């Protein structure tokens, strides 16, 4: 084991590693999106409370400075997450768009989200038996 991270939450639902490998995104059932800068600290760099219900999935795009989170509040939130090569400059995190098209079924909504490998498109799957593509 190289490093032990302390998110400060009880229930982690999902994790995604930045394509450069030095940042980690964690989604929790406690409605928090936690960003770790692995070069900076073992504690969270930033905690975002942008969902109104449990977060089920998080994802980074492989080419573009984008990340997304999906939750039980019917929404997929796409955010800008710029990581700089300069170690003295902190990552820039800006929520961009809330995509709210899935329905709630038995208190569940969006289960998973994934980016297209080359295009800035995002797919989401939900409890309403649909897979949606956002371009």
TrEMBL record:
One of its GO terms (biological process) is maturation of LSU-rRNA from tricistronic rRNA transcript (SSU-rRNA, 5.8S rRNA, LSU-rRNA). InterPro entries: BOP1/Erb1, WD40/YVTN_repeat-like_dom_sf, WD40_repeat_dom_sf, WD40_rpt. Gene3D superfamilies: YVTN repeat-like/Quinoprotein amine dehydrogenase (2.130.10.10). SMART domains: WD40 (SM00320). SUPFAM superfamilies: WD40 repeat-like (SSF50978). GO terms for molecular function: ribonucleoprotein complex binding. This is Ribosome biogenesis protein BOP1 homolog. GO terms for cellular component: PeBoW complex; preribosome, large subunit precursor.
């Amino acid at each position: 084991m190289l490093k032990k991270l302390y998110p400060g939450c009880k229930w982690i639902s999902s994790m995604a590693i930045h394509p450069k490998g030095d940042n980690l995104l964690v989604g929790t059932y406690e409605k928090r999106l936690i960003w770790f800068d692995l070069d900076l600290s073992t504690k969270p760099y930033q905690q975002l409370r942008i969902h109104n219900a449990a977060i089920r999935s998080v994802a980074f795009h492989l080419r573009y400075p984008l990340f997304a989170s999906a939750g039980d509040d019917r929404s997929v939130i796409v955010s800008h997450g710029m990581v700089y090569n300069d170690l003295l400059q902190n990552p820039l995190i800006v929520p961009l768009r809330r995509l709210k098209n899935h329905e709630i079924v038995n208190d569940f909504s969006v289960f998973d989200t994934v980016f297209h490998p080359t295009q800035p498109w995002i797919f989401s799957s939900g409890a309403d038996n649909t897979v949606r593509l956002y371009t």
